[in-house]
Design a protein that fits this description.
Strand order of the largest sheet: 9-8-5-16
Helix content: under 10%
Radius of gyration: 18 Å
Number of helices: 1
Number of strands: 16
Length: 196
């Protein structure tokens, strides 16, 4: 039996906001809100989760982006106080796996893939295929990165990296136990990348 996802006929719609929607031959819409299954799926209704924004794939010679995504971009993100960005995977907040900071080695839960999203931004994907996103103040995860899951990487003078959201907030380890987004790029917002 062939997978439903392989049977999407070229039926698509350009929405009034410039997004795109895709419909299968069975009149189901490709849906990006698959939080529970950690993947996209098809739904009979057409709502907000059936809209996708297409961005051109730009391959540009950028040594910093090449360095950041080397070896498939698989890395651990370690803050200056020796805590790691960690996918809790157990606790769920509004159907999103939590992000925590841990000083204990937790293997796959601390493995992230940094993927170039466009010419200047990256997405940070967990081992269970959720994406780090900006959630007003705290860092959350989502099944689809969207605008809140795209970050401008900055390489600091000490070889650490910082990640700035489109809202000009920086991924930070400054709060106890949970990562947040804060308005300045100080030592708490500077991450050492370790290849896994």
């Amino acid at each position: 039996m062939r997978s439903l996802s392989l049977l999407v006929r070229p039926l698509f719609a350009v929405n009034e906001d410039g997004s795109w929607s895709f419909k299968s031959r069975w009149n189901y819409w490709l849906n990006g809100c698959g939080y529970r299954e950690s993947k996209a799926h098809f739904m009979p209704d057409y709502a907000r989760c059936e809209r996708f924004w297409l961005e051109p794939h730009i391959q540009r010679a950028d040594p910093l982006m090449d360095e950041l995504t080397a070896d498939g971009g698989k890395q651990s993100l370690k803050s200056f106080n020796e805590t790691y960005l960690t996918d809790d995977g157990f606790g769920f907040l509004d159907s999103h796996p939590w992000l925590i900071l841990s000083d204990q080695p937790l293997g796959e839960a601390q493995q992230w893939t940094i993927i170039q999203a466009n010419e200047n931004e990256v997405v940070i994907e967990s081992s269970i295929r959720f994406y780090v996103t900006w959630g007003i103040t705290e860092a959350l995860q989502a099944a689809v990165p969207g605008d809140r899951g795209k970050f401008t990487p900055v390489k600091n003078a000490d070889e650490t990296w910082s990640f700035k959201s489109r809202e000009n907030k920086w991924l930070s380890a400054a709060k106890v136990a949970r990562p947040y987004f804060l308005p300045e790029n100080g030592r708490w917002e500077q991450w050492r990348l370790q290849l896994d």
